[in-house]
Amino acid sequence: MPEKRKLKLKKFFFHPITMFTVAIFLTMILSSILASLEMQSTYNTIKVSGQDLDSNLIVVENLFNYDNMKYIISNALINFMGFTPLCMLLISLIGVSVLKATGLLEILSQKYIKKLSKNQLTFIILFLGVISTIVNEVGYAILIPLAAIIYEINGRNPLLGIVTAFCGVAFGYGVTLFVGSQEVELIPYTSSAASLIDSTAHISLTSNLIFIIVTSLILPLVGTPVIEKIIGPRLPKYHRHDKVTGKTLETSELLLIDIQDEEEKKIAFEKNSKKGLRNALITTIIIIILFAYMITPNLPGSGLLLDTTAKTYVDQLFGLTSYFLDGFTYMVSILFIAAGLSYGIGAKTIKNDRDLIDKMNDTFKEFGMILGLIFVFSQFISIWRRSNIGIIITSWLATLLSNLELNGIALIVVTVILMSIANIFCPSLSTKWMIFSPIVVPIFMQNNISPQFAQIILRASHSITAGITPLLSFYIIYLGYLNLYNQHKEKPISIRQSISFVIPYFLIITITWILIIVLWYITGLPIGPGVKPTI
After folding, report:
1. CA nearest neighbour of 212 among 455, 445, 507, 412
2. For the segment 190-216, what is each residue's pLDDT rounded down to a tens digit?
3. How many secondary structure helices (H) and strands (E) does the chain include?
4. Is residue 231 a part of any domain in this protein?
5. Structural domain tally of the chain?
């Protein structure tokens, strides 16, 4: 009998660039359909300077009409060049490339990082990701590239380093060791919303301090086993290609000479390396002192990076017009460049400027793919925002919450869920809180829950789904780096696959967040100095 041949269908793997291009057209078609159905919503916002509510009617924009088509075409270049993740990534990569080119990253890895266990390294990356959110989204641009290189140097899967860094920043967003940019961004809305119930309500900058310090330790502790035991084994395998050179030695004399030569080189390298590390340490200390002086007020020539027009120091440091906030990524890059050069010169790992630049090119040699991905993604994000679909969905969810008659734990849990869903479609922290705060804060206060605790609910809900929404602007750095280190180029890592990597983390952290919030509410422990979950 003739053998039966199995019909095998060839699988097609679409690149994320293609998928986001398709997403652009689907969003435009969806906007046209919803606009024809007159999809709209009304939501209230509070005037930060007073207690008045402004009613806002928002409708879906038909992206196929004349004005919007003109907007899409004329703003394509602006969307790309002004895309914050692109600018931050390029600036941070210059510093990271110097660290790698001079060998400073490798020597630090050999002396310190390789001594860490897998769990210790994962915890540190997650913890750094969590606390990096004191300065908005800087962790995505700096920590993801850095973690990929560190994991690769240590013989581990760089894809795991990318996922770990992303999980740390995304699922711990807004949880730090001290007050940061989130307080400056959110408190005006919280205070204004609280004044609708109590005109004397005051929300201090440290009102969430105890809570965020404790959770900044809990989240990495919970996340470490999830990364190591569940996510790590599911990632695509990564095979490191080491260049191995050798000599065929025919006599013991040649072997002895070769060994002596290698020993002499090793001794010289260790001597130079120690000198380079000493130089790098001194340079790092000097740069940090200079940066600290730039954010110190009221000293001769100090405060260069502060917005002196702001009233409080936190506003001067983290306000919307803060020079420190705008320039933090650049400052970190300068620190990396200075430390790397100090090491390279001292350790004699770089011969001249041409040698340094040639080695730096290794970091950027495959960056063209990421640039193409970011270009298409920046257009997609701009078009999605222009459509107003995300804001309308957020408004509907806020309205739904206002119509529910809940109290206590049920109110808290449902609020977390609804705001988490809203975050998928509208990842902007301030926009979401602008819509939700006039509803959430008064409802909480009427149920004896403090407005400060309502702000914690926002932090939690944002962190829960920030890592699973492709509408998050900085998600593109995560997706881009996954594909940069993906060795199976014929099978690019898709949007769906990139999100599936972090689903176990998302599920565990969701449960963790809800347990932390509910237990904190039940026990009544302070969430900040003199502030409790209840009024």
Report:
1. 455
2. 999 999 998 888 899 899 999 999 999
3. 22, 2
4. yes
5. 1
